[in-house]
Amino acid sequence: MTTHVTIMGAGGKMGCRILDNLKDNSAYEVACVEIGETGLRNLAQRGWSAAPQDEVLPLTDVVVLALPDRLIGKLCPAIVPVLKSGAMVVSLDPAAAYADVIPTREDLAYFVCHPCHPPLFQVEDTREAQTDWFGGVAAKQSVVCALYQGSDEDYQRGEDLAAEMFKPILRRHRITVEQMAILEPGIVETTVASLLTACRQAMEAGIEMGVPRQAAEDFVLGHLRTELAIIFGASGFPFSDGALLAIEQAQPKLLRDDWKEQITNLDNIRGSVKRITESL
Asked: What is the pLDDT of residues 62-100, one digit of tens each?
């Protein structure tokens, strides 16, 4: 049985990634909704055109919200009411669901998924896979999935679709919407991206002090790979005594004593999600 999938924002970055992975899959019949000029050009380059929203939405089995978080709450009031009973709404990020900005109907299913991206220490066989930084093209990646509203059967059809949208898949993880929000933005954006940005800023400071750029990049990126392997248990060997001493002395200067409590505080995560859905 063919599942009718409508991709909202089909010409955007996420929409195009999903379209590329679904367009030749006979299990899914895809319709594209797009109004932006750049998005329409992206679709045309793939041999696709946009369909009228008011024609395809009433017929769709699954609508995928490949839209910026800040627009989901604004656009969903025109999407949700026209869906047929039993349809599924798929969000590609936990923010809108966790912030409760998606209108709900009791006769619809709501599913949230997000790619984990290719693991840092995964060995790939081809150059294409090695440089597939996002995933969904050649490198294997895992995906996290959550059922916001619906049955176990709804969850399974959502997970199966997520596996096709982000293939090739390494692992599928069933978690809650709140757990997904803890992961993003709570951990990977608020903490990891912020600290890695500081790493880049520290390298640039070294360059301003006179270190040649190529030498700095080779040194920092090489050490970054090794240090991440040590920290996440992939290397099989520990930090040197000198490195451990440097970490011990530097952490109080770089991090507040209560940083972990601040980052994992659910009220702070809810506030971050609210800002994402309203002001980005």
From this structure: 999 999 999 999 999 999 999 999 999 999 999 999 999
In the chain the first and final C-alpha atoms are separated, in Å, by: 39
Instruction: Please write the tens of the pLDDT for every residue from 113-149.
Output: 999 999 999 999 999 999 999 999 999 999 999 999 9
pTM of full prediction above 0.90? yes
Judgement on whether residues 38 and 158 belong to the same structural domain of the protein? yes
* Structural domain containing residue 128: 3-175
89 beta partners: 63, 110
* Same domain as 126, residue 82: yes
Is residue 180 domain-resident? no
Spacing of C-alpha 194 from chain mean position: 17
- Going by C-alpha positions, the residue among 93, 101, 92 that lies closest to residue 74 is 101
- CA gap 212, 214 in Å, rounded: 6
